[in-house]
Amino acid sequence: MPEQNKDFALVVGFNHYPFYADGGNLRGAIADACKFADWLKDKQSGGGLPDANCKLITSTGDPLAPDVQQIEDALVEIWQLANAVGGGRRFYLFFSGHGHSFDTVGQQLPDVALCLPRWSRELPNKSISANHLMGWVQRCMPFSEIVMFFDCCRSRILKSRAQDTAGGCPTAREGYQDTKIVSIFAAEHEQRAFEGAQDADTEVRGYFTTALLAGLKGAAAPAGEDITQFALWDYLQAEVPRLAKVDGRQQVPKRGMQLPPERLVFGSPSPLGPAPGPAAAASNFEIRFKGWRNGSIRLRDADSKVLREGPASSGPWPVMFKYEVNLLEHVETGDTMSIFFRPGMEGQHATF
């Protein structure tokens, strides 16, 4: 995507929670935040943000930081930079860390407390209201679009509240009610979100961010269409539970506020296989057939939709797979083979 000099982002990743109940420090939140920031700054197929427009805040253990002021300072700087270019287009907020639900007062929208590193049972309000951050940006800052992703738990730990920041403005900006807002949570209300390694050789990552980045990089629109909030949400609904299930866990993402009926486009899809030409479609996997196999072959997706059918002699087949189970059938003999396509399998092949 061409450089988007009117897009800005605050990306937050906290691993360090020495006083947190039932879990303590996280292992993948900082890596998730860094990788999301990398996607935002990717000028080829990512968000296209200039480096200076993407503010990345990560935690440290000694000293234990940050606190709310660093987040406030980063948002004020984004506000000033957006004003300096005559107003922004899109604001991204990404948070990866501990979170929990809390008792809201007079709020009807889904919310989550974004826990700061000093959160503890003795300091249960050391967190920030996600809705407050959204409201500050919407009412005060010159953005027409707000996109928020929250990779954190929403379970209820104890009776507590999330604090507001000190941010605000004397009067709301004109037209703030028309801001297009998309927010997606890693888990349903009062449910947990998890992190884990997909195999012994990979780093620990949040299931939600793993799916989010795969979707933004093309998996949400495998045929090369635009990656919209609708396509991304459809992909996350299927992929997050699948990744969690691999580790014997249950996790279901949840949409929060979804105001725009219009399509918001994320990045530019980049085919994972050979670039499409006049005689070939984009592909990210290849299906080969054993020399003795004759007759007709049928390929189905996870919904049993026929993706391709033809004689084995027409192989090998370049295909564009989503991250799901696909089924090959030998029509004459009834032989079948499942292909469980997962991240990291791009460019590989299977022989049937």
TrEMBL record:
Gene3D superfamilies: 3.40.50.1460
InterPro entries: Pept_C14_caspase
Domain Peptidase C14 caspase: residue ranges: 8-228
Top-level lineage group: Bacteria
Protein name per the record: Caspase family protein
Provenance organism: Rhizobium calliandrae
